[in-house]
Amino acid sequence: MKNKIVLIGCGNVGMSYAYALINQYSYVDELVLIDLNKERIEGEAMDLNHCLAYSPTRVFVRVGSYEDCRDARIVVIAAGSNQEVGETRMDLINKNSKIFKSIINDVMKNNFDGIFLVATNPLDVMTYLTLKYSNLPPNKVIGSGTTLDTARLKYLVSNKVGVRPKDIQAYVIGEHGDSEFVAWSNANIALTSLDSFLTEEDKKEIEEEVRNSAYEIIKRKGATYYGIGMCLARITSAILEDKNIILPVSSYDKENDVCISTPAIVNMNGVQEKIFIPLDEEETKKIINSINVIKNAIKEVE
Ligand code: NAD
User: What are the structural domain ranges in the chain?
Assistant: First the structure.
């Protein structure tokens, strides 16, 4: 079976993902593009295929249709509206939930049995709707979750303490949105608490900056896309290469009936296992708040 990916929604986020895939060695054989703007994606496919002579990958890119989902390993969805200046991710809920109903229906009509990877906001709600509309088992529905927020966190901590981002063991968890938070109580570098490296003031500043990053970028350049493109490429390789790596993706939490981000083992089965970080009292209140924010948003759609 070919490692085929169908990408639905080829705007800023979708194409940043596609470009990240082309730039990395990956197991992807074929990338199929679907978007309402047919002419644009014809141009995108041509442009991306012209990278192949110099790229480390063998991905062939073409325009396709929902029938391509029949034998796809992963369907990535980045279709829908993005935030305007001053808009929150939750403000997108009505527009994007309607788009998702028809997209998931069209994918499932073709007996798709692979893994959904969702990037559209509000992320946790769209991931939940994908799960409900598709009826696939929960391990097969993944949202990019707080992978991007965690990348931002690691970058900022790295700048402050002078340790490379990959060696910082810290996660942003909860909603991919305004109620997200850093699980500081277990964050560490070389098994040494981050409290040995950062003051309370540092931690507060870093957490604020992580939470406000999207707003600050949107204010300056209208949208955010390179970071999420890289996160989606990373999740893709974890699945196709059966890597068992830990990523803070959004997936189904049965106990609370929401999709929410915790670190999780990601491999060829999708989310193999969610890992619930032990939280202190303050953090427990924050995760409950995040669960409620997502639950209320889901109720709005239902
Ligand atoms: P964009 O406007 O550049 O692209 C959206 C694309 O979706 C457009 O090309 C549009 O034609 C297409 N589209 C709309 N409805 C469609 C449909 N029914 N079928 C197929 N294609 C359709 O927006 P963007 O900047 O790429 O953002 C896309 C989404 O990703 C937004 O919801 C944004 O908030 C979200 N986002 C998520 C993260 C994250 O961390 N998860 C980060 C950045 C952006």
Answer: 4-143, 147-301
Atom of ligand 1 nearest to the CA of 14: 26
Instruction: State the distance from the centre of ligand 1 to the C-alpha of 79, rounded, in angstroms.
Output: 4
Alpha-carbon separation of residue 57 from 28, 35, 53 (angstroms) = 8, 24, 9
Q: How remote is the CA of residue 137 from the centroid of ligand 1, in Å? A: 25
Whether residue 149 contacts residue 210, with contact meaning beta carbons closer than 8 Å, is answered with: yes
Interval 45-95: pLDDT, tens: 999 999 999 999 889 999 999 999 999 999 999 999 887 778 777 788 988
Question: How many residues can be counted in the chain?
Answer: 302
Note if 50 is an active site residue.
Answer: no
Whether domain 4-143 has CATH 3.40.50.720: yes
Regions of the chain with pLDDT less than 50: none
CATH of domain 147-301: 3.90.110.10
Q: What is the tens place of the pLDDT at every residue in 36-50?
A: 999 999 999 999 999
Comparing CA positions, the residue from 6, 272, 245 lying closest to residue 142 is: 272
Chain centroid to CA 163: 25
Measure 292 CA to ligand 1 centroid, in angstroms.
25
What pLDDT does residue 86 have? 80
Amino acid making up residue 92: L
